């Protein structure tokens, strides 16, 4: 039986999402093959080993019973050092499943640590994780690969403060109104605003800069929100496609995790040729960005002409049994428990 390090939490705006993903993975991991070892990262960045009741994970109560711990960075050591009252306990791990979302987890930082430690891990490598997390880098590569996407601009906080008016004017002239302002590095739509006037752009930029030192402005696309899951290393496969019908004006953090009234339609009601194009484009983006393991690729299907427009790629999407990534593969014939097993095997294979 293999020891699987479940790494969860994180110093991220998506901390609570990660707790629920970890709880779901622990509940559904094939117990005849794998023994979960839980290592959580608190909101303020403390690393704690947790060996208590898994029911305390979603609420955050697990922190009270956590014990200070750290991954050994000696290459090939493959263990977690737990600093208990009676000294250091070393727990061997065979592979890591980083159930982390957003900054400080999905952006290549943890992946780099695991590479240094020589621990196989689920998901994309360091470079792919970092590129996919940064929307301006992702958009640049998509442009190079001639993948259709919304018109966009980016600016650093330093550049913006030098002449915010010039950036706002450029946005209005090139992208038109309304438009979206996003942090370049954030997840779950945190810090995103829809700007309907030039004055709104200033407020939206201020909000986005609270999450990152670089922001992206994107043309508004009047389209349906379509998502596709991808699984694999050298020969990735794409799932059926699904549609998100947001309860709010757009699929923001509240629509995803708080209001609970957004609808998920799986499979999406789209013509076969459109569904095939979405799946093929998802695989193209996945390969172009060097992804391995898993990713969820998000699109707009423009209402005026059914044009497929790439939006973004998520290398560690929400991973509960009712998250879009796993539900899309469930409908593609890969149940949640089997999906976990395949991801672990892909990590070891790589």
Helices and strands in order:
Elements: E1 2-9, H1 15-28, E2 34-41, E3 47-50, E4 67-71, E5 79-84, E6 87-92, E7 95-99, H2 109-117, H3 126-133, H4 135-144, E8 152-156, H5 157-162, H6 164-175, E9 179-183, E10 193-195, H7 198-208, E11 214-219, E12 223-232, E13 237-245, H8 253-258, E14 263-265, H9 272-288, E15 293-302, E16 308-314, H10 324-331, H11 336-349
Parallel strand pairs: 1-2, 1-7
Antiparallel strand pairs: 2-3, 3-4, 4-5, 5-6, 8-11, 9-10, 9-11, 12-13, 12-15, 13-14, 15-16
Descriptive report:
This protein has 350 residues and is an alpha+beta fold. The chain has 3 domains: 120 residues, Rossmann fold (3-Layer(aba) Sandwich); 146 residues, ATP-grasp fold, B domain (D-amino Acid Aminotransferase, Chain A, domain 1), CATH 3.30.470.20; 68 residues, Dna Ligase, domain 1. It contains 11 helices and 16 strands. The strands form 3 sheets. It has a 7-stranded mixed sheet with strand order 6-5-4-3-2-1-7. A 5-stranded antiparallel sheet has the order 14-13-12-15-16. Strand 12 and strand 13 form a beta hairpin. The chain is globular, with a radius of gyration of 20 Å. The protein starts with a strand and ends with a helix. About 1% of the residues have low confidence.
Largest sheet: spatial strand order? 6-5-4-3-2-1-7
The average pLDDT value, as a whole number, equals 94
Overall number of structural domains: 3
Give the N-terminus to C-terminus distance in angstroms. Answer: 19 Å
Structural class: alpha+beta
DSSP strand count: 16
Please name the CATH architecture of the largest domain: 2-Layer Sandwich
What is the CATH topology descriptor of the largest domain? D-amino Acid Aminotransferase, Chain A, domain 1
List the secondary-structure elements in sequence, H or E.
EHEEEEEEHHHEHHEEHEEEHEHEEHH
Report the sheet with the most strands, covering strand number, pairing sense and barrel closure.
Answer: 7 strands, mixed
Radius of gyration, whole Å: 20 Å
Low-confidence stretches: 255-259
Beta-strand share of residues: 25-35%
Q: What best-fitting shape do the alpha-carbon axes yield?
A: globular
CATH class of the largest domain: Alpha Beta
CATH level-four homologous superfamily name of the largest domain: ATP-grasp fold, B domain
């Amino acid at each position: 039986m293999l020891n699987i390090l479940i790494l969860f939490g994180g110093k991220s705006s998506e901390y609570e999402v990660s707790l629920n993903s970890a709880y779901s993975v622990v509940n559904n991991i094939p117990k005849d093959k794998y023994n979960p070892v839980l290592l959580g990262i608190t909101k303020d960045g403390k690393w704690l080993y947790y060996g208590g009741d898994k029911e305390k994970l979603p609420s955050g109560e697990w922190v009270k019973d956590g014990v200070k711990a750290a991954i050994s960075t000696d290459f090939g050591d493959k263990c977690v050092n737990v600093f208990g009252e009676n000294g250091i306990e070393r727990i061997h791990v065979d592979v890591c499943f980083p159930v982390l979302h957003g900054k400080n987890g999905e952006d290549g930082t943890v992946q780099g640590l695991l590479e240094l430690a020589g621990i196989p891990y689920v998901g994309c490598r360091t470079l792919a994780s970092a590129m996919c997390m940064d929307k301006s880098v992702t958009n640049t590569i998509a442009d190079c690969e001639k993948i259709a996407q919304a018109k966009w601009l980016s600016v650093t906080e330093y550049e913006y403060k030098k002449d915010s008016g010039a950036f706002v004017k450029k946005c209005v002239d090139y992208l038109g109104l309304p438009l979206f302002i996003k942090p370049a590095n954030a997840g779950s739509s945190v810090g995103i605003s829809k700007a309907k006037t030039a004055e709104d752009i200033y407020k939206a930029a201020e909000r986005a800069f609270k999450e990152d030192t670089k922001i992206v402005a994107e043309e508004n696309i009047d389209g349906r929100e379509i998502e596709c899951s991808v699984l694999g290393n050298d020969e990735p496969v794409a799932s059926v496609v699904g549609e998100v019908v947001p309860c709010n004006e757009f699929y923001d953090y509240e629509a995803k995790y708080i209001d609970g009234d957004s609808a998920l339609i799986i499979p999406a009601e789209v013509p076969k040729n459109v569904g095939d194009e979405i799946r093929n484009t998802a695989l193209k983006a996945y390969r172009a960005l060097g992804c391995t393991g898993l990713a969820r690729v998000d699109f707009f299907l423009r209402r005026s002409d059914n044009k497929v427009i790439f939006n973004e790629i998520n290398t560690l999407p929400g991973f509960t049994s009712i998250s879009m990534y796993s539900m899309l593969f469930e409908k593609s014939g890969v149940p949640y428990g089997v999906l976990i097993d395949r991801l672990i095997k892909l990590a070891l294979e790589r």
